[in-house]
Automatic annotation (TrEMBL):
Gene coding for it: ANGEL2
Gene3D superfamilies documented for this protein: Endonuclease/exonuclease/phosphatase (3.60.10.10)
Limits of the Endonuclease/exonuclease/phosphatase domain: 201-517
Any one GO molecular-function label of the UniProt entry: 3'-5'-RNA exonuclease activity
UniProt protein name: Angel homolog 2
GO biological-process terms attached to the record: 3'-UTR-mediated mRNA stabilization
Domain of life: Eukaryota
One family name in Pfam for this protein: Exo_endo_phos
Residues covered by region (Disordered): 111-138
């Protein structure tokens, strides 16, 4: 039974002058509920069963005494002195103790002092009825809160706190995705020996530098879970278990890639290609493929920064690979794999669309076949745009009329966007060398390379030409690929959104796998040009989860998932024309 200890902080007694002034200023009694047999009394010297956690809440400049066996459910009572200041600090003992106890948080996150408004709003509107798996977790929460992982596995037979994701395979009869018990249960296999099946993963693994620079997004996490020495083994284990043939990774930190990531993946049979962000950014994008399944035809990095174009002043990058499948009937068969991480800023939709156009132009230059059609294409990445947004619709539909569109609405990241400036027509200047159809204008490129100083001397005339061209320019963007999304973004039974990223401020979908669908694929998009050579048939995908599911394991990152994004995984079959 919990004991109650009364703590006094006398202000005038000399024998307590050794206490920090911050403690003396509290000047009142307060009560804590203590799950143990020891009495916490700061009137006496700190005994051997106390230790310093070594962490500092925002309102204190001294470390707080914390028991090595302190309960994870401990909270200050509501009548504690400066409660509002304390509540606003988001201070939680789980964040400051170096305990190895396994913690399964309540989905409503009542252990937090103050919850982000987005989670309050979204979770309050959902039903309290949980799935059977969730009910089991919640019913056992009080019992297993301080059990170690080993004890928990012994008692329940499986590790608590894991996100349960299943494989879904396309069912030809019902035209829907169907849950499958194992990866091998292919619902659409044929007797042809010429088929080539492979899996592709897209995963933002969370750069350690970006994590530490945005610590306010991870206040819900225990401190020890955020160290790279803890995170990397978890990430590597996920990659091993999912065993994808192609990995498209974002936020791959350069020093970690050079010292650990590349060698670890090569030992698993992958060949790695990497493009670091420009400027002083420490991370980049990587595409890794199994050499037993593919050989490399070409690797084409894309830099979105252009020193001569003020619009393109950001350091994001992309990477486009052309791969040749092994053990295939046609020696000329190829698959184009692209990976990118677009700008985050919700108010700069003009930059996002331009970066996307540059990536599509590079794909259009890499993917053409001898007959003029495009080879099958897969585009992965963190697009920092939500489903249904103008940028998302442009990718899937192949066209976008942006006339009158505010730059803050392009990505759909904000419900009430702050960037209300209307997109200019055209969005990017002519000297970028990319047309409104998102292909390179070869003549314009050659003109830029050969003009040199001549452009500077003719600046007034050139400006006039650009103004005239802008009047004639259309506000319609197009691309020539027929792309579909692996995921549907909403659960059909409930309409609840799928989630690919979750931290203290938001839980949304921003990560995607787009692919050029074959004619008989159910995700075939009407209205797009049928210029692909054959295409890809989606055989299956690793199901996503809801925001409520993620908060039952304390969001992301957590004990077992060490990024603030979930890995996306799809299985394809190459279809030739």
């Amino acid at each position: 039974m919990a004991l109650v200890a009364k703590l006094r902080f006398p202000l005038l007694e000399k024998k307590h002058s050794m206490l920090p002034r911050h403690v003396q200023r509290l000047g009142r009694d307060w009560i804590t509920h203590w799950n143990g047999s020891q009495i916490l009394a700061l009137n006496s010297p700190v005994s051997s069963w106390m230790r310093w956690a070594g962490h500092y809440p925002p309102w204190a400049s001294f470390p707080l005494p914390v028991s090595a066996d302190f309960s994870a459910n401990w909270r200050f009572p509501p009548f504690f002195g400066p409660w509002r200041q304390f509540q606003n600090s988001h201070w939680h003992l789980d964040n400051y103790t170096q305990s190895c106890c396994f913690h399964l948080a309540n989905p409503s996150m009542k252990s937090e002092g103050e919850e982000p408004l987005t989670k309050k709003r979204k979770l309050s509107g959902q039903d309290d009825t949980a799935a059977p798996e969730q009910q089991t977790d919640l019913s056992n929460q009080k019992e297993v809160c301080c059990l170690s992982v080993a004890q928990n596995e012994e008692k329940h037979g499986s590790k608590k706190g894991t996100i349960k994701r299943h494989w879904e395979y396309y069912c030809q009869q019902s035209k829907t995705m169907k849950i499958a018990k194992n990866k091998g249960s292919d619902q659409s296999s044929t007797g042809s020996e010429a088929t080539f099946d492979f899996t592709v993963m897209s995963y933002n693994i969370l750069s350690q530098t970006l994590l530490e620079g945005n610590s306010h997004l991870y206040r819900h996490c225990r401190q020890r879970l955020l160290f790279w020495t803890y995170r990397f083994p978890n990430i590597l284990q996920e990659i091993k278990e999912l065993d994808a043939d192609v990995l498209c990774l974002q936020e791959v930190q350069e020093d970690h890639y050079r010292t650990e990531i590349k060698s670890s993946l090569e030992s698993l049979g992958y060949h790695c290609e990497y493009k670091m962000r420009t400027g002083r950014k420490p991370d980049g994008c990587a595409i890794c493929f199994k050499t037993s399944k593919f050989s490399l035809i070409s690797s084409n990095p894309v830099e979105f920064f252009r020193h001569d174009i003020p619009l393109l002043d950001r350091d994001n990058v992309g990477l486009v690979l052309l791969l040749q499948p092994r053990f295939h009937c046609k020696a000329s068969a190829a698959i184009c794999i692209a990976n990118t991480h677009l700008l985050y800023n919700p108010r700069r939709g003009d930059i996002k669309l331009t970066q996307l156009a540059m990536l599509l132009a590079e794909i259009a230059s890499v993917a053409p076949q001898k007959d003029g059609s495009f080879c099958p294409i897969i585009i992965c990445g963190d697009f920092n745009s939500v489903p249904g947004s103008p940028l998302y619709r442009f990718i899937k539909e192949g066209k976008l009329n942006y006339e009158g569109l505010a730059i803050g609405k392009v990505s759909g990241q904000e419900q009430f966007p702050r960037g209300q400036r209307i997109l200019s027509i055209p969005i990017w200047p002519q000297k970028l060398g990319i047309s409104q159809n998102c292909v390179y204008e070869v003549k314009q490129q050659q003109k830029e390379e050969n003009a040199g100083e001549k452009l500077e001397t003719e600046k007034p005339d050139n400006t006039q030409e650009i103004v005239i061209a802008s009047k004639k320019s259309s506000s319609k963007l197009r691309h020539h690929f027929k792309l579909s999304s692996v995921y549907s973004h909403y659960f059909p039974e409930t309409g609840i959104p799928e989630v690919t990223t979750c931290h203290s401020r938001s839980a949304v979908t921003v990560d995607y796998i787009f692919y050029s669908a074959a004619k008989d694929d159910t995700a075939d998009q009407p209205g797009a040009e049928d210029s692909s050579c054959g295409g890809l048939k989606l055989l299956g995908r690793l199901a996503l989860v809801t925001e409520k599911d993620l908060w039952t394991v304390n969001g992301l990152p957590n004990e077992n998932n060490s990024s603030d994004h979930l890995p996306l995984l799809a299985k394809f079959r190459l279809i030739e024309r």
